[in-house]
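Contributing new records

If you add data, match the layout below exactly. Sequence lines come first and carry their own label; structure lines follow with theirs. Keep one chain per record. Anything else will be rejected by the validation script.
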Amino acid sequence: MLPADAEKRFITWVQSFDYRILRNQEDVETEFITPMFQHLGYLDKLCAKKSSLNYDQNIKRSNQLENLQIYFSTDDVMQQNADTSLLIVIALSPNANNFTEAIAQAKFYSIYLKPLFFIITNGHQIKVFKYLQYHREECVIDKNIYSLKVNSAASEFYEEYNYSYISSLDKNRINTLRYSQYNVIEKTLRRNNLQENIAQTDFIPAVSRSGDRLIVVKPKVVIECSLPKAFKDGECLIKFSGVILRGCQIKLNHRDILGQLMTGLNTRPEWGCRQFIQQIDENAFEVTLGQTTIILSDLETADLCLCIDVVCQEYKQSIIECENLLETWDFEFIEFLGSRGVHLFSVDAKLWQLMHDFANEFNYIQGKTEWHLFQQEEISIRVSRGIRDHAFILPKPVNYLSLLPSGIVNIIYEINDIHLQSLSTSEINAWKQDIGPRGTWTATYTKQWLLDKFIPKVIDYYAQKKNVSASELRKDIADYSSNRTPLLEVHEIRELLPYLRDIQSWLNSYVGNISAVILKDYYHTLTNLFRNTDSSIEGMDYLLRNLTLMEAGNTRDKMKSNFNQWNFKDILYYLDAQVGRINNYQYESSFTADLMTRTFIWIIEHGKISFYQSQLNVAKEALLPLWEQSRFEMRYVNPHQI
């Protein structure tokens, strides 16, 4: 049928429609909505009822409307989803006058289906709303059905909502700022009360999470983020609703997110804790996102920070959870030749060659013994029985000499996408359930299996077969295990030193200010731990130098102390003063925190300290979150900073 003929048939139908045949809600659906959309060119196969949707599993409301139809751009049921949805249509009773509940329901379904429009009608009145992601919906039509009996009105309705036209629209482009908002801006730019009117163009605040997809919306900013999963890189897209930056989209990759956004979370932009923000004046900030530098108002900057706080907390938690589950924290993180993993230990190049030869010889398809559990690889060792991969082991030469028989090879536990095959499933957390001796091996388990079982087996096997020296092969195994006591299991004060040195190294490399929240308990509990320290401590000059530098850097409330005449009791008094001072501030310079940590380390190393176990326990609890933050940033943030 020609488009002109189809339009004439629609006009003829709508002009001949008799509302008196509508007796109930079902009639509105079958006698009005269905034939109207058939005349608009929507085939029955393009329509789905609410009860047939898979979206119901996400919807927990008990009183959802049943008379709801969804029209899609495809008749393939498997492809009828949020990407192909066009219209949501809700039928009300002919006597219904209150559209409020139906509008709320349509908005609720729109969150999942993301249609171009949603339509509500009782057979007498028809309301058409344009769905705008992040913005409030816009009512574009609110008419009595009888007004469509006029040729021009019916023709206009057909042209705007027929299937050929609607299905040709680009959902990404049409879901932008509505014309009425541009009109508001144009008019209000000529008025004095600009802020109140421009607020009408703001996004609608919301937070939504679906799998590894996180969207955080504030009035001025929205961030759409793909979270990392099992060490797979994430990314995010930042959009703005403001007049100047409307339409600006800034995409950040994994490196940008970690290197720029991750520090200074939950702090105000004017505190100087976020390294990508520079304050220009009281109401404006210069913000660097990736390779893009923009100027934002104070409100835009505040909303950007609020969005970043939510996104980065989830981003960070995803990485930490993976490290915890795979037990990789205690090993050095390695990236080389497109691979990533952790360094378990080192072996002589001759031993590595025998390990690789053994894995190829005991390919899982060539036997059924307990050692036929490898899949043949060119370079690596793949522990696998074909159905399930346990671990990937890579060799990393220390230098070019490692290619020679006398070289050293680092053994790398590779984090491989194939290794975590369940990542491709619909269940975002499925891979976590697969970790264990029968599934994906952790780094710790893999290391112990290699050292306790695999390498001894390889050495014994080739000692008999090739007459190699077992003792020579064993002596060059270099294990770099940490001997530190887990922080919460520390019972001696000197066992805190490795953790304090980690914190000090982090603070020394930190640029900018740090939130005082994470330092207050740290300052207080460590100072309290030193109260009964013998005053004959060595290195008073070093301690006084640290205090002098702290005093010089404290521009807000200098104590003007005469350090030359001080003894150790005076130093403890000064540390107490620092505890009192930081309780009155929102942030601290990293330089001062570094000096405080250096002072704590020196006192533990050189002082004779009497303390109660309860004091040490409280200090450990206060130290833990600060140390965990330092560990994360030294591993992930610092390497990606410019």
